[in-house]
Amino acid sequence: MKIALVLAQPPSYSETFFNNKIKGLQQKGHEVILFTGPSRVKYKNCLHKESPPISKFFLLQFFSICIVFIRLLPYFKIVNRFFKLEKLDGSSTKVILKKIYLNAHLLTFKGDWVHFGFGTLALERELIPKSIGASMAVSFRGFDIGVYTLKYPNCYQKLWKHVSRIHVISNDIKQLLYANGFNDQASVIKITPAIDNQYFNADGFNDFSTPIQLLTVARLHWKKGLVKTLEALALLKKRGIKFQYTLVGEGDEKEHLMYVVNQLNLQEDVTFSGKLASKDVKTIMQTANIYIQYSVQEGFCNAVLEAQSMGLLCVVSDAEGLSENVKDNFSGWVVARGQSKLLADKLLEVVSLSSEERLRISENAVNRVKDHFNLNIQQQAFHDFYTKKQE
């Protein structure tokens, strides 16, 4: 199979989901071409094609448009087909010409599948796969279907008519499709994230010492529920529990979170580590005891899989895929989101467990990730996604 993977930008080293997917498909004999917007970074793991640039200078933009349309001349039949399909759909000539320019790199693709890595990336491009004679696949994650649709309801109605196959990362995400107008127009296949459990490998169980080492690895964003996490830790501190909480990640909410830390008198208890490389995250996990992911909204979360694979005791919210990621009272604990007291109570409960019970949960987590969320399973699932006929 020849597969076009469409993303906004090339995956960074830390975006293991897409890097692993591309590598796995290549190992299965598929050809993957990455299509992104203009980028300063060139992706090296497969052929990488960028969309035409947008310039604020009129002459530069004019020359760029001329060059792009000249290069599209050998693909006149495809472009004409796209033009006619868009016209039938009600688009104006001006809008169609703009779409042709922005998607010129995709209109030259000759292959089997065009796979949009996020639902929002398929918007205004719903007719491109049909124009080039390819099947269309779309992946939906938490933001696409759980947040974006709140601002733009019914935005996927056109997509449902043209998509061939849909990939979701959790059952909760699948249910959100139906809540947003999907009516079984295409097959929906769940393929969860997976990790390299040979790399994130537990080296024995870190039983608690004083202070207890708490950890979160997350983008500093409102979705991650970090304010409620800090409020819970303040309650934990009032109950006499000594801890050190390390927050790994960067984001727009950092200044706000630092203010909250100050207001809750947690300056001596919380460390902002910034964005770290995978090997450094692993090092921190080797010394941590409890991993916290109290998100408001979360598709699945690779960091939670990594923490479980490292044998950490994981306490997560019930946001979307997290309740599938962690099996409550078996491989960790799931707490109703948005209630800092509930989180504090659960953390206190975990701290109060016997060493034997903590070890049992840790071992369950390690084994569950190894059995259900390893890369071999994911790579085979994506191979089947493109090659097997779905009912």
Automatic annotation (TrEMBL):
Signal peptide: none annotated. GO terms for molecular function: glycosyltransferase activity. The chain crosses the membrane at residues 57-76. It is an enzyme of class 2 (transferase). Residues 209-366 form the Glycosyl transferase family domain. Coiled coil: none annotated. Keywords: Glycosyltransferase, Membrane, Transferase, Transmembrane, Transmembrane helix. The keyword Protein transport does not apply. It holds the Pfam family Glycos_transf_1. InterPro entries: Glyco_trans_1, Glycosyltransferase_grp1. The keyword Chaperone does not apply. Its EC number is 2.4.-.-. This is Glycosyltransferase family 4 protein. It comes from Winogradskyella marincola. The lineage of its organism: Bacteria, Pseudomonadati, Bacteroidota, Flavobacteriia, Flavobacteriales.
